[in-house]
Write a structure and sequence with these properties.
Dihydrodipicolinate Reductase, domain 2; six-stranded parallel sheet; 11 helices; single chain; 14 strands; alpha/beta; six-stranded mixed sheet
Amino acid sequence: METAEFLERSQNMKNNNENILSRRSVLQGLGASAAALGIFSMTHSLTADDLPRDANGNVIPGFGEDDKQTRREIKENSGKWEKKSDRKIRVGIAGYGLCQFGSHFFYQNHPNVEVVAATDLDPGRCKALANAVGAQKTYPSCEEMIKDKSIEAIYIATDAPSHARLAIMALNHDKHVVSAVPAVFGFEAEEDAEELFAAVKKSGKKYMMNETSTFHADLYAKRMQYQAGALGKIIYSEGEYYHDGVGAIGSYNPQNGKIDLNGWRRALPPMWYPTHATAYYVSVTGGGRLTEVSCLGTPGLYPEYKDGNNTHKNPFGTEVAMFKTSEGGMSRMAVSWDMKNAHGEQGRVYGQKPHNNKINGARPALPPGVGAGGHGGSHGQLTNDFIESILLDRKPIVDISEALNMTMSGVIAHQSALKDGQWMKVPQYDL
């Protein structure tokens, strides 16, 4: 039965991806023409036909239409963006997998960016990415692209297990780095965290993790409250990332170089992908940290989790962690791949003082041509923040310290769950 279910899910994913590629072929042709003219059309949400979908044909969470509040903010902030520099940062983009993040964060639209190169391990995806972002140069791998001395910054939108390795290499080659989440991954996470942190310190370059929850409207508003001192200390916070059926979403498989159901997402430990939840404390406070954790997990409902007989040795489909914070508060963070009728990235934050409605919590205005994008209108905000951190030589909104706290708190939480909730300390990485 397990084999039959797996084959059915695999075929569903294959058929769905073929449909997406068929619809996208026309758009890619248009993209090539647009690139020649320096014109790009990704200033708003993707059309329904062009949204990434899972094995069952459902739109992957985070890629729906911009919510009404996001569109209202865009309208209200129209024309308010102030150009900080005439300089263009030369950017190389790596990765065009199932979610196609390489093109969905608007680097090709930013007035202070020149996308000069693109790469993907699959030649077809590499060509499609280059067309989508207007890159005149392509490379067969991110490693080769990193060696290009003319590139100033690398956007790593590859498979999660490669994020840390590629980021470290890029930093060591004197590049600024922005990475998709999580910052580190898997059984090597603790070792990679040490090496990544050291590489950032040694290079002096900017490192940012693209945590989308950071620019959710509700989280950003609380961040503004906290920074203004309106909330006092955070007594209690909670974050949730619920996404039923992650194991049925294709991902890069290093064994064959393809996107299939045996890739890195298969039986993924929930707390190895925690940052959409943990941001609801770390990004609200800016300097607050998750310091200790006790976590419990429940056996996954799907066959790939049975008895932990999988690549990740993971039996859990849902993990819920209770953290102590550096302010002396508490924080509950939950990630689930198998709870029915539960979905999305959300959280709640409660301080010593009530929310002050007089404090402006609106997100910053975006440059002309840069859309808000998916995941609650966070894509364009993250890109603009990273580029301006380089231009103005300031800290990115999710720097290496925050990226590692958001990520490693989950890594240690998973270890705690494997030990029936034993309290464990979260390593700290503060510059």
